[in-house]
Design a protein that fits this description.
Elements lengths: L2 E7 L17 E4 L2 E2 L6 H9 L3 E6 L1 H6 L1 H10 L6 E4 L6 H14 L5 E5 L7 H15 L4 E8 L8 E6 L1 H19 L5 H4 L5 H15 L3 H9 L1 H9 L6 H4 L2 H8 L11 H17 L3 H19 L10 H7 L10 H22 L10 H9 L1 H6 L11
Parallel strand pairs: 1-4, 1-6, 2-8, 4-5, 6-7
Antiparallel strand pairs: 2-3, 7-8
Helix pairs in contact: 4-5, 8-9, 8-10, 13-14, 14-16
Amino acid sequence: MPRKAIAFLGWTRPREGELQPTYRPTIYRYADELSPPTGFMAVATAYFFRPDELLVLVTPQAKAQNLPDLQRDLEAHHLPAATPVDIPAGQDEAELWQIFTIIADTVQRGDTLIFDITNGYRSLPVLALIATSYLRAVRPDVTLEKLVYGAYDAATDGVTPVFDLTPFVQLLDWTNATTALLQFGRADFGPLVRQSALDGLARHLNSLTLSLHTSRPRQAMEAAATLPAQLAAAQQHAAAAPPFALLFDQIAQEYAPFGLAQPNQEPHAALQRMLKIIEWYVQKELLVQAVTLAREWLISLVRLHLGLPPFSNDRRDQELILNERAPVPALLQPHFAPIKAQWDRIRTLRNDLAHSGMRPNAQAAEDAAARVRALPTELAALLPVHPKGES
């Protein structure tokens, strides 16, 4: 795969008494290696990383002023010539979008990129960073090898350190993973903490959210029950991934309320937790899962009234009762009418969704969604008063 270095070359403001303004020469240091003296970080980038191609983004003013000197410097150090890429000055939003498009057009499928943002003018380094992140998202076969910055202001004894900013690009990956968790309830932190002390927590959280997305309430409850201990243990390793650690409180607040170590031992509490999960589905707009679990919740509610545990592989007898194909037991009769009415409504709604609206009198999507969003409140009204002895 071709390795491309993309650098900016800016315009140099004249200093007092200077006839021909240019970048001041320095020696750049990257890791334990020193570049030859040069006024251009692009030269150091080419020297340190030996890319197949060096692309230099230049405004018309910078091209006229500094590009000839850069090319001479590259030649003097036996480095390949730079390929100039013309960009506007970035004076307004339209020009910034134009620069974004130009950067995108320089990147081809399969490229490995080294970005040098040292001499980007004004907001161009930020734009380059955002463009890099976007290109990595839309072109997964593009690899960002390095993002570097020559910190001339931090130079000591004529040696300028080159900062490797590549790890901070990962903050954008953390942003995407955090959005996926908080908005959609999907935990995608594994690749970000792999081979770290937080890998176990990431895998546990992934299992928990996967059980929610696949409508496995019992598995979700059991995983959530151990989540506080997992988070407490992970806290001592927070330095391994500070962005992850910042989420610990939010993770606990959102998922720990689902926790129940032995759902069949506390049936009332289990139905409460299932209600919380249904509410969570509605909040995340996981409407099909909400209806699916609401139906099962009603069967578990019937089992609660009959003194049976909420989770069982054999629930057919309770379905027969709800479908009026078996007599209503005496224990259930005082509560049956509203449960049955809700069962009929949910059955119709579930069938509507399960058949993708391909049935007579199918509801409009907006109407179906409104019905689903009303379910948590409607179901909560059916749950009896909390019995003694349960948490």
